[in-house]
């Protein structure tokens, strides 16, 4: 295993429970990523085989936000069960998933998160402030953070610009104050920020430097688009805080690896990004 991928999406239409249920949104995002149809039409086995070929082991985005078309909690539970089965069936390719759920499900949502952690081997809540309309520092998320902290599992908080353009706000995705507040309020909670954080990349670097419990995986953007200032920080002060995330199958591994390796990062920094940091933070023996 050479690479740990912290963001794999079940986008393919061969999947029983694809990430995006809303067909119009699915079409828009496919166009945005210029996703090749062959990648999105792969079977479960074909996706897993590609992970094996590239020596990748990864986590899946589970659950289901309402903005993606998931408005029935029973269906969200069924999707989580399906993903739990996938990671058991293909344990050489998958090792966990993140539970995306809107906070307005209230106690029922909290119960589902607890079930996923205890029974399905998931990680913590996936917090999309923009995707749910509830910023990460809103008290509606606090019970979820408390649960994850007590269970010893990390959470994911989305940062930076989203592929869903013009449909959701951007202001909720700024690490300052939204991640900064959560890190301060829950110092024992491991927070992995999801996405490359542009246009808030300098704010993200500051939060990574300031808070020992905050990290950032870079899915959704080719590294060739990172600012020079952020690249310098990756090569120096935040090299122990950056992790690899893809957005597979929308973004392909060959393209991403070539882009990462063309930016002038030190070999030891790339090793940390590809594998070392995630192994250390998640306590992985893989």
Automatic annotation (TrEMBL):
One of its GO terms (molecular function) is hydrolase activity. InterPro entries: ACMSD, Amidohydro-rel, Metal_Hydrolase. Gene3D superfamilies: Metal-dependent hydrolases. Keywords: Lyase. Signal peptide: none annotated. SUPFAM superfamilies: Metallo-dependent hydrolases (SSF51556). The keyword DNA-binding does not apply. Coiled coil: none annotated. Residues 77-284 form the Amidohydrolase-related domain. Pfam families: Amidohydro_2. PANTHER family: 2-AMINO-3-CARBOXYLMUCONATE-6-SEMIALDEHYDE DECARBOXYLASE (PTHR21240). This is Amidohydrolase.
């Amino acid at each position: 295993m050479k690479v740990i991928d912290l963001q794999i999406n079940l986008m393919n239409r061969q999947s029983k429970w694809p990430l995006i249920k809303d067909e119009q949104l699915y079409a828009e995002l496919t166009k945005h990523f210029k996703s090749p149809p062959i990648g999105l039409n792969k079977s479960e086995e074909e996706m897993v085989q590609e992970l094996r070929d590239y020596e990748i082991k990864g986590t899946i985005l589970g659950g289901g936000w309402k903005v993606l078309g998931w408005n029935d909690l029973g269906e969200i539970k069924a999707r989580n069960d399906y993903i739990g089965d996938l990671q058991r069936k293909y344990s050489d390719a998958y090792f966990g998933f993140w539970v995306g759920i809107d906070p307005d499900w209230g106690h029922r949502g909290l119960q589902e998160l607890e079930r996923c952690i205890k029974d399905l081997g998931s990680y913590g809540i996936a917090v999309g402030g923009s995707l749910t309309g509830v910023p990460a520092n809103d008290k509606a998320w606090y019970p979820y953070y408390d649960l994850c902290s007590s269970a010893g599992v990390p959470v994911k908080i989305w940062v930076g610009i989203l592929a869903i353009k013009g449909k959701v706000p951007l202001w909720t995705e700024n690490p300052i104050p939204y991640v900064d507040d959560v890190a301060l309020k829950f110092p024992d909670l491991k927070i992995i920020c999801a996405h490359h954080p542009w246009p808030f990349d300098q704010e993200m670097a500051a939060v990574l430097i300031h808070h020992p419990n905050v990290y950032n995986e870079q899915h959704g953007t080719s590294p060739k688009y990172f600012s020079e200032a952020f690249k310098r920080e990756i090569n120096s002060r935040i090299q122990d805080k950056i992790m690899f995330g893809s957005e597979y199958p929308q973004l392909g591994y060959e393209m991403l690896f070539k882009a990462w390796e063309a930016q002038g990062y030190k070999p030891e920094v790339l090793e940390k990004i590809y594998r070392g940091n995630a192994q250390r933070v998640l306590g992985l023996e893989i």
